[in-house]
C-alpha cells in the first residue's frame, strides 16, 4: 500500500493525525499533512483508509 | 386548502426548520422520511421566506461540501441566511472566515490552522485538565444541586479561549462578559456596547503584541503574517473574533448537551468511566448523536450542479442537515442508538466537511474529552435534578443547547 498526500489541497484539519498517528503528522509551520510512512504495513491499512475517508478535502489517497 | 395541496403535499416547499417532536434534542422525525423518499427537497425558511434545497443524505452532503461550485458568500441573494444580519452592512464589512470563498478563505484559514493542530492542542490538554478540575472543585464545594451550564459548560471554553488568545488578567472579566452575552439573551444595547469594548480590546492587544510578542495566539498570528504578509491588522482582529464567536457557543452547548445525553444513558456513561482512554471515540459518537449544529451549514450554487439526482441551478441556496446525515442508516447502523463503542463514529459530519470544516475541531474534541471523563470520574453519582421536559432548551437556535442544566449527586 502506497499513501499519496496532496499538500496543495490540505487544510490542516488534523483528522488523519488522530485517525492514523503512525502514518500522518502535521508540519509545525503550516499545519499541513506530513507523511511519516509512505508505504505503511498492511496492518495499518484499515486506519489509513479511514483517514482517506475522513479527510474533509480529499487530500489523501492510496495506491494498490 | 386546495385539492392539489391535499393530494400532493410535497409540491409546496416545507417550512424550515422542520418541526421537532418528543425530546427537544431529537432530530425532526421528518428527516428520516425525507432521506428515504426525497433526499434533495425544497424548503422555505421560516426566518425570511427564502426558498432553498435541503440535503438529508450523508453522501449528498459530503459531495456538496467538497464541490468548489458552491459558495459561502452570505451577500449572495440566494444564500439561505438563517439569522438576523444588518443587510445594509453586507458588502461594507469584511466577511468572517465562515463566509469567505477561496482564495481569500484559504489565506485566512491557513493563517490560523497551525495554532490549532493536533500537537498544539495536545500541549493545551494539561492546562485544560486544571481548568476542568477547578470548575468541578467549585461544584463539589458548593454541593448539589448546581447549574452545570454556568459552573462547567461556560467557564471551561471561556477561560480556555481567554488564555489561548492571550487576553490579560485585567481584561478577563470583559472578555467573559462578552462571550457570555454571545450565548445569552442580552439586550441589543448590551451586545453593541460589549462588541465595541471587545473590538477595542482586540485592537489594543494586537498593537501591544506587535511591540511585545508573547506566547499566545495573537503573537503567533502576527509573527506568521510578518513573514507571509497576507493579512492586515483588521483581518487578524476579524479572524480572532470569528474564532471566538464560532467556537464559544458551540463548545458551551456541546458540553451541556453531551452531559445531558450521558445522564440519560447511564450504561454508556459507565462504559466511558471505565474506558477514559477511549474518550476520543466517545466524543465522536456524542457529537454524531447530538449533532447540535444541524442546519447552519449552507451554500449557494455558483453553477448548475446535479446532487442526488436533482439539478440545483446557479443562484439557488442549499442547506445541509448535519443531523440527518449523521443519522443516515447507510453509514451509521441503528443510527438513533447512542453507542460509544461505535467503530464508524469518526465518520460523522457534526463539525461539517470540506474546506470550511470547523477550524477548532481538535480543540473542542480535546476539551470535551477532558470534561466528560473528569466529570464522570469525580462525580460518579451525578444525576439530573429536573424532569427532562422541564429543562430550558434553547428554542429556535442555530445550535442546540440549554440555558440551564440542574444536576445533583
Automatic annotation (TrEMBL), chain A:
Cofactor: [3Fe-4S] cluster
Start and end residues of each 4Fe-4S ferredoxin-type domain: 1-29
InterPro entries: 3Fe4S_ferredoxin, 4Fe4S_Fe-S-bd, Fe-S_cluster_ET
Keyword match Metal-binding: yes
Pfam families: Fer4_13
GO MF annotation list: 3 iron, 4 sulfur cluster binding; electron transfer activity; iron ion binding
Keywords: 3Fe-4S, Electron transport, Iron, Iron-sulfur, Metal-binding, Transport
Electron transport in keyword set: yes
Role, per record: Ferredoxins are iron-sulfur proteins that transfer electrons in a wide variety of metabolic reactions.
Full protein name: Ferredoxin
Record organism: Streptomyces atratus
Amino acid at each position: 500500500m502506497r499513501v499519496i498526500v496532496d499538500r496543495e489541497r490540505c487544510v490542516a484539519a488534523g483528522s488523519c493525525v488522530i485517525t492514523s498517528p503512525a502514518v500522518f503528522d502535521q508540519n509545525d509551520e503550516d499545519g499541513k499533512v506530513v507523511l511519516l510512512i509512505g508505504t505503511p504495513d498492511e496492518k495499518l491499512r484499515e486506519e489509513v483508509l479511514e483517514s482517506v475517508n475522513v479527510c474533509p478535502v480529499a487530500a489523501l489517497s492510496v495506491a494498490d | 386548502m386546495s385539492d392539489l395541496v391535499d393530494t400532493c403535499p410535497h409540491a409546496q416547499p416545507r417550512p424550515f426548520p422542520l418541526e421537532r417532536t418528543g425530546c427537544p434534542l431529537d432530530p425532526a422525525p421528518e428527516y428520516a422520511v425525507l432521506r428515504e423518499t426525497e433526499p434533495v427537497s425544497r424548503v422555505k425558511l421560516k426566518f425570511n421566506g427564502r426558498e432553498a434545497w435541503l440535503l438529508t443524505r450523508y453522501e449528498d452532503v459530503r459531495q456538496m461540501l467538497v464541490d468548489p461550485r458552491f459558495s459561502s458568500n452570505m451577500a449572495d441573494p440566494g444564500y439561505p441566511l438563517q439569522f438576523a444580519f444588518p443587510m445594509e452592512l453586507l458588502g461594507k464589512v469584511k466577511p468572517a472566515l465562515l463566509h469567505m470563498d477561496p482564495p481569500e478563505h484559504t489565506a485566512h484559514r491557513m493563517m490560523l490552522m497551525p495554532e490549532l493542530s493536533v500537537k498544539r492542542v495536545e500541549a493545551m490538554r494539561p492546562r485544560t485538565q486544571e481548568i476542568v478540575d477547578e470548575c468541578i472543585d467549585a461544584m463539589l464545594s458548593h454541593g448539589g444541586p448546581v447549574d452545570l451550564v454556568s459552573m462547567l459548560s461556560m467557564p471551561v471554553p471561556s477561560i480556555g479561549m481567554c488564555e489561548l488568545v492571550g487576553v490579560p488578567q485585567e481584561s478577563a472579566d470583559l472578555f467573559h462578559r462578552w462571550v457570555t452575552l454571545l450565548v445569552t439573551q442580552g439586550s441589543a444595547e448590551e451586545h453593541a456596547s460589549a462588541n465595541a469594548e471587545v473590538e477595542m480590546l482586540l485592537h489594543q492587544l494586537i498593537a501591544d503584541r506587535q511591540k511585545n510578542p508573547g506566547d499566545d495566539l495573537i503573537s503567533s498570528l502576527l509573527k506568521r503574517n510578518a513573514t507571509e504578509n497576507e493579512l492586515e491588522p483588521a483581518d487578524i482582529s476579524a479572524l480572532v473574533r470569528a474564532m471566538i464567536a464560532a467556537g464559544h457557543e458551540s463548545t458551551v452547548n456541546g458540553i451541556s448537551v453531551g452531559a445531558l445525553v450521558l445522564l440519560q444513558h447511564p450504561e454508556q456513561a459507565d462504559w466511558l468511566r471505565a474506558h477514559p482512554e477511549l474518550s476520543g471515540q466517545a466524543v465522536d459518537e456524542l457529537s454524531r448523536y447530538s449533532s447540535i449544529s444541524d442546519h447552519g451549514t449552507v451554500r449557494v450554487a455558483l453553477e448548475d450542479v446535479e446532487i442526488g439526482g436533482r439539478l440545483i441551478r446557479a443562484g439557488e441556496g442549499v442547506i445541509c442537515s448535519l443531523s440527518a446525515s449523521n443519522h443516515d442508516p447507510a453509514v451509521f447502523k441503528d443510527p438513533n442508538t447512542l453507542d460509544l463503542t461505535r467503530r464508524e463514529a469518526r465518520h460523522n459530519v457534526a463539525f461539517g466537511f470540506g474546506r470550511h470544516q470547523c477550524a477548532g475541531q481538535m480543540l473542542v474534541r480535546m476539551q470535551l474529552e477532558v470534561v466528560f471523563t473528569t466529570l464522570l470520574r469525580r462525580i460518579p453519582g451525578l444525576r439530573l435534578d429536573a424532569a427532562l421536559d422541564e429543562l430550558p432548551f434553547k428554542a429556535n437556535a442555530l445550535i442546540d443547547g440549554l440555558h440551564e442544566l440542574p444536576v445533583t449527586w
